[in-house]
Amino acid sequence: MIMNEYQMERQKLSKELKPCPFCGGEARLKKHQKLEQTWYVQCNQCGIRTPNSVQAAYESWKTTMNYPVQLWNRRI
What's the CA dihedral at 41, 44, 47, 48 to 10 degrees? Predict the structure, then answer.
């Protein structure tokens, strides 16, 4: 299977995700099914997730895809 730049970036960011801070489960970077160019990170075990990251007209898709990963990985 040949991967395009979009798929490679998604795969790269998915590998950077830390385990869920609440249950230790595996997290996934997901694209919203109804809202175009909207991304979030969600735990596969407990379901906790980040807010949606929606692409603004002046942002690249990489920025929009990266934002929820940054939120997820930040531990405060």
Answer: -40
